[in-house]
Amino acid sequence: MIERYSLPKMQKLWSDENRFQKMLDVELAVCRAWAKKGKIPKKHLENIEKKAKFDVGRIKIIEEKTKHDVVAFVNNVSENVGLSGKYIHMGLTSSDVLDTTLAMLLSEAADILIEDLQNLAVLLKKKAKLYRNAVMIGRTHGVHAEPITFGLKLANFYAEATRDLERLNYAKENIRFGKISGAVGNFSHIEPDIEDIVCAKLGLKAEPVSTQIVPRDRHALYMSTLALVGSFLERLALEIRHLQRTEVLEVEEPFSEGQKGSSAMPHKRNPVVCERICGLARLLRAYSQAALEDISLWHERDISHSSVERVILPDATTILDYMLHLMLEVMDGLAVYPENMRLNLKKTAGLIFSQRVLLALIDKGLTRQKAYDLVQRNALAAWKQKKDFQELLAKDKEITKLLEEKELRALFDLSYYLRNVDKIFQRVGI
User: Is 284 within 8 Å of 312 (Cβ atoms)?
Assistant: First the structure.
């Protein structure tokens, strides 16, 4: 069984303690790089490395006065190292620390999401194999179309999950850029090789051309990727919701012992988890729009993006983490009803084989339009008269003069529609 979702990983990632620790990691990496260039005496570096620390509570007290979180952080760290504090934050601007820290946080958040999605992809692949031959009706516009299998449906979702894994990995690499280039990105009070050293030490790449900040197209791509993954989960959740309708009931999301579906109707078993996933996907798309709005800033930087990112980045990564765990639980405990799939296949009394009859008549020499009209005429009669489609065709003289009884009967063979399922599975590596 899949373990129920718990917050610790992502919650710890976005905690003040972890964020300030990464900010300290940046400051220390800069100090070490300066020391290599002889700008910080060895004794001061040793003192900084030994005593540099922070206290979240103290930072908040200082920030009440400074109204600036990075200044408060630097002041707090400096309090602990004495005279050596003058070397901390040397040549830097706030965004050097903040954006480089953010790159690390978003990269680690991506790792969590990639692991989640990998787990879901493995489960989808397993379920696709299990139901490879579970015949069901394919639907277009919500209406019966032609036979498929439930495994084929799941293979489609598995293939999308693998594409989303590629997107997440790309988004992670695209966001792994820090900057230590100063107030307007021109290295006025620091050198480019300091940036190279610091970024390499922190597992990042140096932003080729920055302003005061790392360009926000990187963050917009990251957020758009999260929205895409969320939309994939919504598509899967929506499919389950449709298939759980009473009139269909081909699958059903897990319903635990003691769970209640309605305060008024004791019989209700609603797809509430899948509905929750669909709702949260809307938030991710809204957040991606906000990230796109953050790209355009005044000149070398304004601060209009900052307040937005403080909300959308922790929220979006946490929400997607949660959604992925919800879908893992749903797919792990999904109830599948092959017998209902078989029953639903028969609801149209053979109409789902209409295209094969159409093509057979064309093969016999009829024009497409004439063949279509003949088949549609009988299909409409089957609908209105609630009669078996094959029986009506067998009584139509214009059809029977072209198709013998044996030929007509063969056109209603389910296996014909499923003959390429294995080839499709091979294409997606199942």
Answer: no
